[in-house]
Amino acid sequence: MKNKSHFITLSIKRNILPSLLVAFTICLVLFSKENLSATKNGLLLWANSVVPALLPFFIATELLGHTNVVSYIGKFLNKFMKPIFNVPGIGAYAFVMGIISGYPIGAKIVTKFRENGDCTKAEAERLLAFTNNSGPLFIIGTVGITMFGNTLIGFLLFITHFLGCIIVGFLFRFWKFKDSENISYKNSSKSTNQNITLSNLGEILSSSIMNSVNSIVIIGGFVILFSVIISILKSSGLLQIAINIFYPFFDFLGINVNFIQGILSGIIELTNGLSSIVQVSTKSISTTIIISSFLLGFGGLSVLLQVLSITSKSDISIKPYFIGKLLHGIISAVLTYIIIHIFPIFNLDIVPIFSSNVNNINPINAYGNYYSLSIALLLFIFTFFLIYKYKNYAYSKRK
User: What's the pTM?
Assistant: First the structure.
């Protein structure tokens, strides 16, 4: 009897994925009209938002991987990254680029580190837990200015997102702590990357563009796929069933039940969920901001699978990443709640913030581009300073 039960369990496990894929294919035909519209929307979202925001950063990180910049930063910042996050100094490069560029640049860089032997498996998993984040262009530009119509909200969400990932990084310094006590990334194999020179510039540039385009196309596939999945869930009524299930829970917490659909959509795919949440009519805009903060930290299943498609080339486990992003979402939401209630400037419950004319909402909006440019310039100067100081230090050591 026990063997029969075990056999049935194994049979269910083996057949559940094929059954879901068959059901998905049938739903594509049954709800073809809605799915066609969702596919077009997903394609437009990818072409108008994802490609312009991520492709240049993908190419830049690929090219930087063929220089000594990463090793310079790593050696210079090792004394900070190791005690705080228990990762090698090169993790600072993944952390900075992950914050600047957005999902899934951090995962791409960390996986590259692991493939090149620049860090151990445990160190790569710690890095992955806090270096793959939403970028300022998306949080401030898309969410703050475009969705909320207020740059101040964008900056608030970015601040709490940034602080949240630092806290997660500190907590994950204890992940597989003993695994790296006697192992150092310095003992790992050397990078196989070819350094960029004038003679091989064309070859490396072509290779970097090809790798970047390949990554961006994969991301586009995920965006379109999950747009269709959300459409099927809506058309089939499954999303409404889930809303009915979660209704008592949200009602008990005193949260507007109209947020349920947006939260569930955001857990599946971030951008669609945020768009739904912002459109909910509520007197308490702080609730909308806090929920948005959680979803930005978590990233959604779409981003999770994007990361999995990148890390699957290595031995990095996806488990710490999932735990880290869940913690990131919760911590960011809590920090957002605290800041809103401590600093009156961020308490916008009594201020009408939605408008078709974004620039009339907040005077900060007029200077949003200058802020972004200033941040980029400061980061460039800081990186140049680090390289310059390290070269002088190395030169003095050789003397």
Answer: 0.74
Q: 154: closest CA among 351, 327, 289, 287?
A: 289
Residues 289 and 5: their CA atoms lie apart, in Å, by: 48
- Please write the tens of the pLDDT for every residue from 126-148: 999 998 888 887 888 778 887 88
Instruction: Name which of 214, 130, 219 is nearest 175 in CA terms.
Output: 130
Percent of the chain at pLDDT > 70 equals 75
Residues 6 or more apart whose CB falls under 8 angstroms from that of 395 comprise none
In one letter, which amino acid is 208? S
* pLDDT given for residue 387 in this prediction: 54
CA proximity to 168, closest of 340, 339, 323: 323
CA pair distance 167, 170, nearest whole angstrom:
5
Structure letter (DSSP) for residue 199: T
Alpha-carbon 348 to chain mean position: 26
**280-302: b (≥16 Cβ within 10 Å) or e:** beeeebbbbbbbbbbbbbbbbbb
Q: What is the 3-class SS of 44-59, one letter each residue? A: HHHHHHHHHHHHHHHH
Q: Is 149 left (phi over 0), alpha (psi -120 to 50) or beta?
A: left
List Cα–Cα distances, 245 to 242, 260, 261, 328, in angstroms.
Answer: 5, 10, 12, 25
75 C-beta neighbours (distance < 10 Å), count: 18
